[in-house]
Amino acid sequence: MNIKDIMSKHVEIVSPDTLLHDVAKKMQASDCGSVLVGKDDRLVGMITDRDLALRCVAESHRPDETTAANVMTKQILYCRDTDTIEDVALDMTKNKVRRLPVLDQDKRLVGIVSLGDLAMHSTDEHHRVCGKALGDICTATTKPVKPQNREARHA
Questions:
Q1: What average pLDDT does range 89-105 have in this prediction?
Q2: Which of 34, 38, 69, 105 could join 48 in a cystine, given CB atoms 3.0 to 4.6 angstroms apart?
Q3: pTM of the entire structure?
Q4: If we measure between CA atoms, which residue out of 154, 93, 50, 116 comes closest to residue 35?
Q5: Half-sphere exposure of 150 (CA within 13 A, CB side)
Q6: What value does the mean pLDDT of the chain take?
Q7: What is the pLDDT of residue 125?
Q8: Where do runs of H (alpha helix) occur along the chain?
Q9: CA angle 24-30-35, nearest 5°?
């Protein structure tokens, strides 16, 4: 099964100058844990609920004065819509990420896939791979982790 068969097609995108208060409101309204940051038809970052907690609240930044550009993760990993569940789960494990933007062959954003998506649509063998991925990611250190997979794709 390919990622295009299980990904979420609804992706929240904000601009780099969006205030974090508005980012959090968008996450709340959409019941999602991340938003992508885009500028001039390009992905330039991602903000997760964890980024809001660690890079905004924990560092005493004011969400009504701080922009997405100040806390976003700039290095964006992604997968292709034709990638398999197993390959994406392994990439997520290696890079210790819970979600990835999904791009088509023209590098256009077509969705986002999370570990939850992988787990919901997987066979017994996929459950083993996804379970390992989730366990590895959840037990990872709380410090930001640089991607370790040399073959990981960047936007």
A1: 92
A2: 34
A3: 0.77
A4: 50
A5: 0
A6: 85
A7: 57
A8: 20-30, 49-51, 68-71, 85-95, 115-120, 124-138
A9: 55
Structure tokens at 84: 């398999």
- The SS3 call for residue 153 is strand
Tokens in use for 40?
């001039």
**Count of beta carbons in the 10 Å neighbourhood of residue 100:** 28
Cα 52 to Cα 38: distance, rounded to the nearest angstrom: 17
User: Taking a C-beta distance cutoff of 8 angstroms, is the pair 76, 58 a contact?
Assistant: no
Residue 45 tokens read as 């970052």
Q: Compute and round to an integer the Cα radius of gyration of the chain.
A: 15
Q: Is 124 exposed, middle or buried (0-12, 13-18, 19+ CB in 10 A)?
A: exposed
* Residue 14 φ/ψ, nearest 5 degrees: -130, 165
3-state DSSP call for residue 102? strand
List the domain boundaries for the chain.
Answer: 3-154
pLDDT digits (tens, 9 = 90+) for 26-84: 999 999 999 999 998 889 999 999 999 999 999 999 999 999 999 999 989 999 999 99
| CATH number given to 3-154 | 3.10.580.10
* pLDDT for the residue 137: 59
